[in-house]
Amino acid sequence: MALLELRGLNKxxxxxxxxxxxxxxxxxxxxxxxxxxxxxxKSTLFRLILGEHHPGSGDILFAGENITALKPFARxxxxxxxxxxxxxxxxxxxxxxxLEIALQRTHRSVELARGIxxxxxxxxxxxxxxxxxxNLSHGQKQWLEIGMAISLKPQxxxxxxxxxxxxxxxxxxxxxxxxxxxxxxxTVLAIEHDMxxxxxxxxxxxxxxxxxxxxxxxxxxxxxxxxxxxxxxxxAHA
Amino acid sequence: MxxxxxxxxxxxxxxxxxxxxxxxxxxAIVFAIACAYPLFSDGYTVGNTVxxxxxxxxxxxxxxxxxxxxSLSFGQTAFFGIAGYSYGxxxxxxxxxxxxxxxxxxxxxxxxxxxxLLLGYFMFFGRIAGxxxxxxxxxxxxxxxxxxxxxxxxxxxxxAARLNGFNGMSAMPPLTIPWSGGDxxxxxxxxxxxxxxxxLLLVYLGLRILMNxxxxxxxxxxxxxxxxxEMLGYDVRKYQLITFVIGAALAGISGxxxxxxxxxxxxxxxxxxxxxxxxxxxxxxxxSDLTSTVIGTLVVLAAFQALTIYGSQYAxxxxxxxxxxxxxxxxxxxxxxxxxxxxxxVARRSKGDV
Lengths: 238, 354
Ligand SMILES: Nc1ncnc2c1ncn2[C@@H]1O[C@H](COP(=O)(O)OP(=O)(O)OP(=O)(O)O)[C@@H](O)[C@H]1O
Ligand SMILES: [Mg+2]
Known about the structure:
The complex is a heterodimer.
Chain A (H helix, E strand, L loop, with lengths): L1 E12 L2 E12 L3 E5 L6 H9 L6 E6 L2 E2 L5 H7 L1 E4 L11 H9 L5 H15 L14 H14 L4 E5 L7 H16 L3 E5 L3 H7 L2 E6 L2 E6 L1 H6 L1 H12 L1
Chain B lengths: L5 H4 L10 H17 L6 H26 L7 H19 L5 H26 L5 H19 L7 E2 L2 E2 L6 E2 L5 E2 L6 E2 L4 H22 L2 H11 L1 H6 L4 H27 L1 E2 L6 H14 L4 H19 L3 H18 L4 H20 L1
Antiparallel strand pairs in B: 1-2, 3-6, 4-5
Helix pairs in contact in B: 3-7, 3-10, 3-11, 3-12, 4-5, 4-6, 4-10, 5-10, 8-10, 11-12, 12-13, 12-14
């Protein structure tokens, strides 16, 4: 069954055609990776899915419902959640308060405190819970934001470059975490440049290039595709 | 504070400075002194102190909207003026019998809040934010001042109330509490002092609870990162609008109390200077905390008045210097900086004792 379905999504920024008739079907329960050169339109596609940008034309279906006209917060209520490319934690607030704000919409009193503690343990941030989130290392901020995103228990988790700036071990741990969440039933769409991560988790890969779906398949098929190699090489030489 | 019912436990929390027995004992002492003070003073001085208290509500309104919510509004004086004029128009028409002045207080505050609801709806749902919010609110404030200033003619009347243009309205009845043994008229001395002090206590404690509640959490989250707040499922614009309306109501309380205190209100209460002064009190005190806002406002107002005796130009220069000092030394507010320093020292000492 399709959980997310994008139908002919078009988005222009001025004269720039950032997403060009994008069709994409995400099956419930899969881990899907979205790759493509810088500026391909990957993050923009996320913002279209989340309702932060509105498509010039096209439709977005989530769990069978057309959500194209819904406000962003309402899409979150439907079961979407996101970790953005640039970590967006509440910098001036403590780590604990960050998690409290994420959880308080669905949890109350004792349950809320317990939920926060569980997340702190899960994220390995217990020692930092009273620290101001702005003082965390880049990797910790990344983890904190992932923690806030998954605390909503979404049906579909969107991750925009979750491992940027992480060491290989941390990247691997993040991959394991994504797999664990997936095993519990969460569908994941991840934008990632780190091919080791993609290889570790992706069940299917979509390549976006110049705003268009360029190729789709298993990681082996994508790696073997010479045309895909060419667009990455083209970019390296540019 | 674990034995207290849930909402009272929110009197302290991450959003308000000051916690534990040391803070609350100090608080109780200060409040006791404030209660006893009129017994050792004269009517004029007490009336003057009420005047200071009156302004604290508008300062708190800025604290909530700007300090906690992160939206700089110049519109607080507009809500102040709307509520003040509304009180005047209502009481000049319907008098003070049967406790009507108290109903007029509530009605005037509601009118200011409704105006904020309308203005805020167009701003927040029209995606006006940041600097533009400041510009729009300032424009509305100055427009209201201009409008009221040209209402001198006899055709500008609402029932029995003449608006009187630049000279403003006067002679509205003071707040009056109906009582079996004869109405209690709260003139600008001891009576009004206790009424305003009581209201201030309620509002201050109520705001502490509100700011440490889940609502307060969302408000500061929006200040820190509105996009993230939305992505956690919060309807950011709705929360901003509610905060704006709460702030307008607080400013409205100031407006009514000011009008009832002096029994007059003029358009200049909505002018440029009137709009700028509360910003200075709140910035100097520490806009992101309720307590520092209250202390800062009272201290700056008292200092301002003391200096005015030597000439108002000195007082205004002093305000400017104070603002520059704040920006240089403690951008989050001088009083808040001092309070944080004290609580750190106390924490260190109590650690040393163990
Ligand atoms: N708000 C905006 N206004 C104008 N142009 C934009 C906006 N956001 C993105 N763009 C442009 O759209 C194109 C696609 O940007 P996008 O961020 O979606 O790329 P991306 O695939 O996520 O790239 P990266 O891998 O570098 O993150 C880029 O050329 C970018 O400059
Ligand atoms: Mg991107």
